[in-house]
Amino acid sequence: MTLPEWLVKEIDGVGDHAAFAGVDELHRGLHTLAAGYREITTLQRVGTSRHGEPLLCLTIEGAPGDPTGLVFGLPHPNEPIGGLTALHLASRLCADPGLRTRLRHRWRIIACIDPDGLRLNEGWLAGPFTREHYARHFYRPAGPDQVEWTFPLDYKDAYFDAALPETQALMRLIDSDRPDLVCSLHNGELGGVYYYLSRAEPALHRRLREVPGHVGLPLDRGEPEAPYIVRLDDAVFQGSSIRGAYDYLTGRGEPWTNAAGDSTASYAGRYGALTLVTELPYWTSEAADDDSPAGTGYASALAAHANALKGLSSLMEDTIAAVRDDLMVPDSPFWRASRSFAGMMASAARGARHRSTLPDTDREATVAEVASLAEDTHSFRLRYGGILLRALDGEVAVGNTRPAVRAARDRVASQHAEWLAEDRSIGDYRTIPIRQLVATQYGAVIAAAEHVASAVAG
Asked: Which Gene3D superfamilies match (predicted)?
């Protein structure tokens, strides 16, 4: 199968970007489109963020009876590709009646669902796009502060009902519109392109797998994000509910300690929506889609990953314990995230260690598997070690000169510098131009929309 001409034209028409967009630029973009296309658009405030930012949704009308598509960027605020994708999608739909007719949807487009979190990432959005600059300005919220993972959950003894204001805004839209298609615009960090779908759609799988290759990006054939994730196809995974994680962990005898809730896909699934999650990296390498034997045992690669994550979690837990009684801003977003990810990394280390002992891991690993495990090690160290360092820098910035805080800051900064040096020693990461990232994500969204419209039409 080759991509149809109309889809190729749309993908190739995505322009260059020198930087990712911050909150103000994304909001200006929606306002500009609403002002320029009043006859087919409505811009409304659908909610308010925890820090008082408006949550803006652009509606682009379709024909009576058309399916509804809900598209939102920044479900995790460290993933800014989706903001540009949402703006490009909205711009093309407004400007091209033929595209609107082909895709046959009523559209609800939110360029940024987590403006508070995006503002805490704005230090790296304009580059330079080095691993160090990214890590030192990186922020990802604690689990209970993530829009994507704070939908209601009531499963066995796992219960969550503290949906964030941003999540509640999405819930209201989903409940009122009952969308046929939901696109949660995520992205990863290293490796290749992969997708989550809330249900198997084989014809769409083929189209999604072809889009990255047209743009010049590899599919990701390495490790799935978690061992319980179901692979539907090459680089296409089942994305539904956190219930799978619960069953996997408790089935191994581990307690359920996740303090967050369920996902967009789970909530929208009650209305039969097809949810698409696109995952794209900022950096890639030749190993991302290399299925050849690595000459390394899979079990030993998992064990090495487990050891590295244990070292990371120990540093985070020990640091948090050492300064707990000396903090001036203990509830800052950076401390909340640090506490959350310390526990998450400890759990991930136990999981990787357990998997390394299973009979089915006693085999040779592929190049992609070894690379993805190593990349995850480096990514988690730089990300979460960087957030911890920002938490300590924040203490110093507000005048906390207590010895425990200063000593912890020096210790974490030294370790983070060592991890950066290890990451630089790999040397084969390629920074992906932003245009390729937006083009891939945009192509996936409109391919899914055409697929859904065709299915609804029968």
From this structure: Zn peptidases
